[in-house]
Amino acid sequence: MESEKHTMDVGYVAKLAAIELTDQEKELFQSQLDQVLSYVEQLNEVNLGEVEVRNESAASHDQLRSDDEGISLSHEVIMANAPSASSGCVRVPKIIDQ
Amino acid sequence: MSDLKSMTIGALKAALQEGEASAQEVVEQLLTVVEEDAGRVGAFLSLDKDSVREQASVCDEVRGAGNDKKLLGIPISIKDLINVKGDPCTCSSHILEGYVAPYDATVIRKLREAGAILFGRVNMDEFAMGSSTENAALGVTSNPWRLDHVPGGSSGGSAAAVSADHTIASLGSDTGGSIRQPAAFCGCVGLKPTYGRVSRYGLTAFASSLDQIGPITKNVWDAALLLEVISGEDERDATSLREPVPSYTKALEQTTSLEGVTLGLPREYFVEGMDPEVEEAVRNAVEQCRALGAEIVDVSLPHAKYAISVYYIIATAEASANLARFDGIRYGMRVDGADPAALYAKTRASGLGDEVKRRIILGTYVLSSGYYDAYYKKAQRVQQCIRNDFESVFKECDALIAPVTPTPAYRKGEKTDDPLKMYLDDILTTSVNLAGNCALSLPCGFSSDGLPIGLQLIGNHLDEENILSIAHLYEQHTDWHKRKPEFLS
User: Per-residue pLDDT tens for B374-412?
Assistant: First the structure.
């Protein structure tokens, strides 16, 4: 965004995001997102000089509880939400080729 | 029997305590109006009558045994992205159809402990992405003040239900204005707490560094009480703040004047293209605060105009990661594919709506190799400038007073084809999320065609007591909050 104008290939990015798009969607989203990207170009006019991000959340928020075991969700409860299951396992398409 | 459904939490608490009403009577009145509504307002996505009746009967038994609690017998409706054990939690998305929440969010546990009745799931923009509740995949919600207008969003169902007297109060969530904007559009009070004040455990994440759960209510006192109940440190949310929770209701009851209070008027918040009626109503409210003793000073938030750009980079980046979990494997809907990658892509293609897809794609892009520095890192640095602006104005004033939205509610369909136009609606609310401050919206007038106008009070970090007190005092001297939509009469 510094000097040259970037263009986004919606079809490629959608693949990275694991979303299948129709040609019609690609065309529509491309024009809509190009508009958004051209709007955010306005950030180039901000003089950022020495501005550095202070990680306030790390300083004041991070509070880790002790790593104790506790009651978790039961197998039965988890499986009740699975879209496809058999023999007490979530069914998925084959991951490893023969 | 008196009209219980239109009562505030405060009035209903008193009626229940005095034995003038029972929780069962309250829920029967509400169930009747929701049923008679037959989708005209359409605030609810689901409402389990048996569960509501059972909860009410338990509340009456508890009271009958001589007990009382902060919200005993008070019906509260829940935005459909907060998990309630045993209830659906669809986020108004097809991809979560069939999902049943296996656990309670922390705010829900707290509501239950306070004796509240969980009164149904209310509509929203899909995954909280939108400003009109028109991106909802599972229902249409209308603005009770004019049914052909949008209720705002993304907590549009939460605000519409409160405004139409279809519930007593509700919970929403605010990532870029999603509590304050619908509250303004529907004539309610809506509070976005300081980041970390309320636990996000059990809230379906959109942009984790910005999301906060908060109340939408009929008046300021109710918002203070609900906030009191849901706030506090939670070991299940590492970003929840340790600071003790004050009695917000006590704080506002003690405020009787604005003497000694300095209110900042940010000049950048009176944007070009602002509706003149909105500006007039807000300026009148400013004068009213001056008359109540406040000193008004002009202040500047020079980076406010960049808030939308920063927001749509940071929020979509976080969303692209957070929504990766909706892949059709462990819960929700699934569209089968030959291999896992095809299954994910087909499930997400069919389960997610256009706006959600656009935002995931944008977020993936700004985080992708070669663009991370140009977009995400730069946005973070401008976010720091926005934070610095707030820090510096809060050195000279106690709170900021501003409009919530540039216009009142608009007609349905007016902005659905133009995402950027819809994004620009959030111009006066997103900065607060980016800086982590608290802010509330309360009614301060009506447009000539009868639509509510909201006033925004922005507070420093953890200064909810202050903005609630100012809002409460203002409310005591006005009657905007007492008006009801015409279709109710």
Answer: 999 999 999 999 999 999 999 999 999 999 999 999 999
Put simply, the chain A residues between 19 and 58 with a CB less than 8 A from any chain B CB are 19-21, 25, 28-29, 32-33, 35-37, 39-40, 42-43, 46, 48, 51-54, 56-57
Type of residue at A58 = A
The predicted pLDDT at position A57 comes to 55
Question: How far apart are the C-alpha atoms of A40 and B363, rounded to whole Å?
Answer: 13
A55: closest chain B residue by CA: B384
The candidate with the shortest Cα–Cα distance to B266, out of B452, B399, B407, is: B399
B434 contact A CB<8A: no
- What CA–CA distance (Å, rounded) separates A81 from B107? 23
Q: For residue A32, give the DSSP letter.
A: H
Instruction: Please tell me which residue, B186 or B420, carries the higher pLDDT value.
Output: B186
Domain of residue A9, residue span: 1-46
Q: How many domains are there within chain A?
A: 1
DSSP string of B107-156, one letter each residue: HHHHHHHTT-EEEEEE--SGGG--SSSTT-SS----BTTBTTB---SSSH
Cis before B154 (ω within 30): yes
* Interface confidence (ipTM) of the complex: 0.93
pLDDT(A61) > 70: no
**Residue B212 pLDDT > 50:** yes
Query: CATH code at A21?
Result: 1.10.20
pLDDT at residue B438 in the model: 98
And the tokens for B141?
Answer: 């919600």
How confident is the model over B273-313, as pLDDT tens digits?
899 999 999 999 999 999 999 999 999 999 999 999 999 99
Q: Which of A2, A5, A16, A19 to mutate to test the interface with B (most CBs of B within 10 A)?
A: A19
Question: Between the CA of residue B261 and those of B139, B403, B457, what are the distances in Å?
Answer: 44, 19, 13
For residue range B215-243, what is the model confidence (pLDDT) as tens digits?
Answer: 999 999 999 999 999 999 998 998 999 99
DSSP tally for chain B: helices H, then strands E? 16, 11
Report the CATH fold assignment for B9-302+388-488.
Amidase signature (AS) enzymes (3.90.1300)
Chain B CB within 8 Å of residue A92 CB: yes
- Domain presence at residue A70: no
Asked, for residue A23, whether it belongs to a domain, the answer is: yes
